[in-house]
Amino acid sequence: MKFVVSKSHLLNALNIVSRAISPKNPRSILTGVKLELNKNGLFLTGSDSDVSIVTKIPLEENENNIITVFEPGVTVISCKYILEIVRKLEGEYINLETFDDSIIKITDHISNFSLNCMDSKAYPVLDLNVSGNTIRLQTSELNEIISQTVFAASDKETRPILTGVNFKCLGSLLECVATDSYRLAKKVVAVEDAPTFNITIPAKTLSEIQKIIQDQPMVELSVSDKKVIFKMANTLLSTRVINGMYPDTSKLVPSSFEYNLQTMAHAFVSSIERASLLSVDRNNIVKLSMSAEKVNLTSNSQEIGSVVESIQNYRYEGSRLDISFTAKYVTEAIKALGSEEITIGFNGDMKAFVIRNKEDKTALQLVLPVRTY
Q: Helix %, strand %, coil % for the chain, to 5?
């Protein structure tokens, strides 16, 4: 294998596939990135068995030469080292050449590196066939889905199903839900010609996908019982789905509320963050007191002191209500909604409350209150 390639294109491709590669993988072959050069371009592959990514660097782009091929071939190289080498090389173009399938030389006009190669025949055969039910999403839609749900998934493996985001498609709606049993995030988007499916995608994988899709106009999802493939212009990402039935969360969200608070998102979050400064509890619990006359956020610690935050711009409907909650859960929920103005619906001091973007009815955040007495 021998070729010359644009540094910027190679570095971008390596950054993409490296998201599926762990340097601590017990299978040494999977610590490497597979390079396969043929008449269609350079294909880079990374995998940790659960997540696999293949991305292509074309020979030409916008009539500009990206790769000059002298000899096609395939090899596997340590991802950690080639990524760092390419990142620090100064040349606009990089020369790569393998010798006896055991060594690859990486050079530019200043530097000359030699790296040991791995046996490409030992690299596992990956099933990246696009099959199953297919939907297409605009990148902005998928980005919103991930931003508004993934943070609410559990980070504990005691209930593996809750470490993912549930994607349920029925009719013309795709409903995406994440919960760790203390909070819930939900986003609904309309899709055309949608099939019916119900799968749970690992939250960690979705976070990595969000970093890859930024420059893509559309993303195609091919869904089957065991895997989901995200197809972009020059990249395929395959991920396993989490086995098990996701809990039915439809009955957790109240349809009506006895108390309603409408306020400005940024100011409310800032007040919560200041109120939580004096909370010694590891969950940073603060108390929200609401009435027609005033709305306050408070925190009180015998060891440290107390704080009272007065909310200035608000509209409240209902009788007096005091409710306590975990500051982190509420601030993350409000930030995820991305709204200047929010509405919060309550049904009592120990019942889950719902936070919504006033302008967008397709997203909601639900948080359980905390008992403080």
A: 25, 45, 30
Phi-psi map region of 363: left, alpha, beta (phi>0 left; psi -120 to 50 alpha): beta
Q: Provide the pLDDT for residue 280.
A: 67
Q: How many other C-beta atoms are found inside a 10 Å radius of the C-beta of residue 254?
A: 15
Tell me, what's the pLDDT at 215?
A: 77
Cα gap 32→21, rounded to integer Å: 7
Six-digit token string for 140: 């902005």
Q: Is 165 helix (H, G, I), strand (E, B) or coil?
A: strand
Q: Is 266 helix (H, G, I), strand (E, B) or coil?
A: helix
Judge whether 56 and 42 are in contact, CB under 8 Å: yes
Low-confidence ranges of the chain (pLDDT < 50): none
The pairs formed by 243-250 with CB atoms below 8 angstroms and a separation of 24 or more are 243/160, 243/161, 244/160, 244/161, 244/200, 245/161, 246/161, 246/164, 246/166, 246/168, 246/177, 246/198, 246/200, 247/161, 247/162, 247/179, 249/177, 249/179, 249/184, 249/186
For β-strands 164-170 and 173-179, DSSP reports them as antiparallel
d(CA 369, CA 360): 24
Retrieve residue 162's tokens: 């809750």
Query: Which pLDDT value is given to residue 279?
Result: 72
Q: What does pTM read for this prediction?
A: 0.91
pLDDT single digits (tens) 269-312: 999 999 988 876 666 899 999 999 999 999 887 778 889 999 99
Cβ atoms of 107 and 95 within 8 Å: the answer is yes
